Amino acid sequence: MIVYDKVELENLTLVEEAHSLKEASFIDSEQYKVISKQLTIPKGSNNLLIRLAFFILGSFLYSSICGFLTLISENAIGENFEVILFLYAAVGFAGAEALTRLKFFGQGLDDAFIIGSQLNLAIAIGLLTNGNEIVIASIITLTALINYLRYLHLSMALLFCLALTATLTYAMFEIGTTGKTILPFVIMLFAAAIYFLSKTIISKLVPNFYYKGVLLANSFSLILFYLSGNYLVVRELSVLLLDAAIVPGHDISFAFFFYGFTFAVPLFYLIYSILKKDRIMLWIGFLALGFSIYTIRFYYAILPIEIALNLGGVFLFGFTYFVIKKLKDKEAGVTFKPDRLTKTNAFLNAEILISSQLGLKPEITTESNIGFGGGEFSGGGSGGEF
């Protein structure tokens, strides 16, 4: 199914691991250059600016081909715009296939053709089916999955997750009011199923060509699970989908459950991620907790915004300083020591900032006031006295 040479993909994984070791100072630059030169890998770029530049260039190339086809087929197509859009999608798929055959992998040019083909296909299906959302989402789910399995582009893995979620959502809409009412709970179960399924796949994934895509699906499920039960999201969707006007003194159904869910899930993410040392879940937990605070603030403004921000800043500052002091000397487990396999020195910068703001000074070893020259303390010295 994968269009690339699997040996070259394995070499790419080895080069990425060597680059991580170089960044962590386990090997030097010369050793990394020797390793990278000896291994044949697909043509790609880790520099986002270069990849973006080639993506723009690829978009111009793609649009130029589509424009030329429009000029030569304008009279034959007439008013059937969906036909030309299907043709554009076919051009995108053909261009992606040709570029990947030339060993372009995440280089920018191939991204433009892969993403462009999906966009044109979605628009063409929309015109053909008069905007039938569930049909559009279903077909895009299938094509995005095929594209990811073949080209290993993470954008397709993300599109697959979004389209699959949209397919389920529109399917619930088809049920009517009952489907819209139970939609949050269905999405919760759906997200939980994706999480456990992706965890199982990761543990059994050999070889690991699809690891990044499955990991992305796993992270997506965590975000989706939280948003499906967030009070703000549920309440606003209830107003939008069910036309439920919420008057003062009243609330949505199961309001207390969603209140508790809004704060319980982020706290669970934080505690569980620390126990399991899951960095991605930890960051998602922090972001979810921040959005939970915003959720309550959106409906219940207990304090003026400036006072709330100041109090929140003081609390976070004090909590951060306390955690740093507790973890700074730990060598194992949950520690404040910088990770050698990461490029950032954010922990060290945070420690410097907090120390400077609180006026703390580094520990200084003071000179002893005990004289050792005359031999008058604990043993014979130059004077011979004990």
Automatic annotation (TrEMBL):
Which spans are transmembrane here? 48-71, 83-100, 156-173, 179-197, 209-232, 252-275, 282-301, 307-324
Q: Which organism is it from?
A: Flavobacterium frigoris
Q: Which UniProt keywords apply?
A: Membrane, Transmembrane, Transmembrane helix
The source's domain of life comes to: Bacteria
Instruction: State the name under which the record lists this protein.
Output: DUF4401 domain-containing protein
